[in-house]
Amino acid sequence: MHGPLIETLARQGVTRRTFMKYCATLASMMALPPSAGRAMAEAMASAPAASKRPSVIWLPFQECTGCTESITRSHSPTLEGLIFDVISLDYQETLMAAAGHQAEEALHAAMAANDGKYLLIVDGSIPLGLDGAYSCIAGKSNLDTLKEVAKGAAAIVAMGSCAAYGGLPHANPNPTGAVSVSDIIKDKPIINIPGCPPIPTVITGVLAHFLTFGSLPELDQHGRPKAFYGETIHDRCYRRPFYDQGKFAKTFDDEGARNGWCLFELGCKGPVTYNACATVKWNGGTSWPVESGHGCLGCSEPDFWDGGGFYKALSMPADPLKLAGKAAAVGAAAGVAVSFVNRGKKSAAKSAHETTTLADLEK
Amino acid sequence: MAIAQRVVVDPITRIEGHLRIEAETDADGKITSAYSAGTMVRGIEIILRGRDPRDAWAFAQRICGVCTLVHGIASVRSVEDALHRAIPTYSIPQNAELIRNLMIAAQYVHDHVMHFYHLHALDWVDVVSALKADPKATSTLAQSISSYPKSSPGYFADVQKKVKNFVEQGQLGIFSNAYWGHPAYKLPPEANLMAVAHYLEALAWQRDVVKLHAIFGGKNPHPNFVVGGVPSAISVHVDHPGQGKGPHYRGGQDATAVNMVGLQIVQNVIKQMRDFVDQVYVPDLLAIASFYKEWGGIGDTGGNFLSFGDMPSKSFWDTDSYLIPRGVILNHDISTIHPIDLDKEDEIQEFVSHSWYKYGGGDAEGLHPFKGETELNYTGPKPPYEQLEVEKKYSWLKSPRWQGKAMEVGPLARVLLMYADTKSAGHAQTKELVDYTLKTLDVPVTALFSTLGRTAARGLESKVLADSMQGMFDHLMANIKAGDVRTFNDQYWDPSTWPNHMHGVGLMEAPRGGLSHWIVIDGGKISNYQAVVPSTWNAGPRDAQGQPGAYESALQHNHVMHDPKQPIEILRTIHSFDPCIACAVHVTDPDGEELVQVKVK
Asked: 3-state DSSP: chain A helix, strand, coil percent, rounded to 5?
């Protein structure tokens, strides 16, 4: 296997073996058969050489540029690896050289040349209030721009929680009438990659899937790829054993916090948050929020901003869990192991996790 | 060209957020007036009302994902300042200040390097010209200005080949339709190739150095913070041998990210940052600047500069312990530093005469942020539009003023204050760096007040801050070694223990300049939140007196456009400020609902 990507990787000191391993890992994370890793590697390595690099158009609306920043932090493949060898990033306001009319021309040229074939990435929500005057680019409302550019797209990636669910601008009282991409576009395949921002590996993983198979991966009920959003943070958390033992940090620097005990009582939303932070981690596997001592904010869930407070401990809707949780906390405080309570709590937690959503948190 | 024209640049790319510039030129192409308009709002301050003040940092942080931590820090400081004003004994542990300082300094260095290479460089560097370079001559050039090891002819030949392949494929992507070949590009092909190589190196470098934020904040962009300290508990237990089944038995690798491995990563990042700034950023900056000295006479904002100061070595409330001083410089006079009174009602004010807002007492008045009003009043054209009504209201940005004067904030303001303030800890090094730069470029001190000076200041400040990080890290390690692992003050964590009414201001120097978050808390909930941010100071529209904001003043200073259809001159000066427009615009009140008027004594 060879191709421009392999050459680039070689220049970056990445061996073919490492690249294959990355693809295999990606495939296994996405719950695909082992052969898919090989297919993915072949496609990523050779597709660009075989034909034109697929066109990608990235539109920024009510956003903070955190999602763009996140993709620049991708370690494998790197952003420059993607841009030079895998995709043709034809419009990206934060990175592109051209401005003003020249930028607009580049957008329209890419749309015309790749009609029906380009991948549209959107970050930020779209405000409907005031005829869209809350957010304009080149004198046009985001709403008009989205509709115009979506028309010729093969598929749309709603990047980050704002594009996927409305995100922060949509938080109560939603002053600008902000909505998500899927609230507006109904006739195109849309994949949501939520997170504030999303994990770079997840972004590049989904792009790799699209480029390999020409289709979007399997999605859950919130339009997220199951491969990355299939399990809760809590289920894969390295601090889970402490939860099961009823050992909880009470403040951010007490003995428990320093020993890596569970952050449940400090408001961690890990039990109701579906994302890959606990396994993929952040910034090249360096750490992730819980490992660095702060509870999960729940940022990949719809309406997590209105979840009732980041430091308010989850109150599970299932009563047995609530009772068990309290008992366990008391037990831990007294230094007593209450294994039977924990067993009950575990099963209660298990059933509760399947039914709890952020919307339930306020109950 | 024969006639006066209006030039519209929208979108301004290679910035954060949505910015539009309209400029009028005379018959010679010289800009006579310029108008800066923020064209996006989200309403974050409105969204914050009624919420738990301890949650505010997470909302406020999403004002911007580029200078990703600054609004988080300013927000936790605002709540802490409110507590400190109400309960003077309230403080946060020194380790937390040190960790915050490390994160802030890392943000500066990361942000400035990315700005220089990925947002600003393409205004000065012609990527296509790099194809004509001789790799061997490029290597000679690179080795003449720096000891950076990646400088062989083979290395530059590889980079050139990569760019050549890319261009020959005919899909230029983010480099398409730009201004390549424009006569304003002055670098020889070899300097262009060197800069393109470092554009790519910087992209790889920045991925690694954000690991510092990941260790302390769990992730980047948008690391985590907490009111009262930092959330990252230290899991180094020097007093335990690490054996047995006691509560400390997991105290090493598996507990938290701030263990010996994590701290070693932090140490490596500090070294990587210093190396890159010393060996790549500053040498490139000086080399490129030497071809653009005329820009030392273009883009002066009028000589008023403001800094809130930052990097406390003792505490946020001990401004004498700041590395970056607080103060104001007026009319280019760096011999006098004016103090800032935060609470005086007529000192820091925001105006809305040319902004799409309405004030209860009339749009001509200025309001102190504690009394800030935010009633939206969009009077602009219905989109799609060709031109804004610049004689009326034309931006979602307000116009902040200090004692009625427009101010420039940012790296140039800070470097001037460090240069001028003999009490500042950064003084000696900054003075040396500035004098060295002026001497190397052979330009007068007045060249600092310019587009070139602003871009140079950003690089020099990066060196001061990168160098300061080692001392902070050593201090943190010494504390841990001495058994001090406190990172959080849990006293007054619970809002039910707070006084019923509190107000405070969280100040910081963000990479783009002075940032202030003003919070009013009633009954443990936010009753008013106002963020007065760097890009509002710089990018704001005219005020009631018709005084332009900093971008506007700068563009009105000595800009002659070669070709109004290719606005590279505008981009150079606007990018020299490193615009962050999502930061600048964040207020709205769509329904004209009655706004809470908060009186502060």
From this structure: 50, 15, 40
User: Is-contact B9 A99, C-beta < 8 A?
Assistant: yes
Nearest alpha-carbon partner for A195 in A215, A226, A236, A224: A224
Tell me which CATH homologous superfamily contains domain A4-229: NADH:ubiquinone oxidoreductase-like, 20kDa subunit (3.40.50.700)
Structure tokens at B246: 């006691």
A contacts of B251 (beta carbons < 8 Å) = 258-259
Could you report the predicted ipTM of this complex, rounded to two decimals?
A: 0.91
- Say if the Cβ atoms of A288 and B582 lie within 8 Å: no
Among A64, A133, A252, whose Cβ lies nearest the Cβ of B382? Answer: A133
Interface A–B counts its CB contacts (< 8 A) at: 341
Hey, which bits of chain A come out as E strands? 55-60, 88-91, 118-123, 126-127, 136-137, 140-141, 153-159, 178-179, 190-193
What element of type H or E holds B443? none
Above pLDDT 90, what percent of chain B? 75
Is the per-residue pLDDT at A73 higher than 80?
Answer: yes
- Which helix (DSSP H) or strand (DSSP E) does residue B349 occupy? strand B348-351
* In the block, residue with structure tokens 């070949």: B181
Q: Specify whether B583 is catalytic.
A: yes
Nearest CA in chain B to A126: B42
Q: Is the model's pLDDT at B39 over the cut of 90?
A: no
Residues near B437 by Cβ (< 8 Å), separated by ≥ 6?
A: B286, B456, B460
**What Å distances lie between residue A62 and A11, A142, B9, B191, CA to CA?**
37, 9, 19, 37
- Whole-prediction pTM: 0.89
The matching CATH number, chosen from 4.10.480.10, 3.40.50.300, 3.40.190.10, 3.10.580.10, for A234-360 is 4.10.480.10
Q: Which of B18, B118, B380 sits opposite A135 (nearest CB)?
A: B18
Helical spans, DSSP H, in B210-350: 211-217, 260-276, 282-289
Selection from A145, A137, A85 nearest residue A120 by Cα: A145
Binned at pLDDT 50, 70 and 90, residue B37 comes out as confident
State whether residue B524 sits within 8 Å of chain A by CB.
no
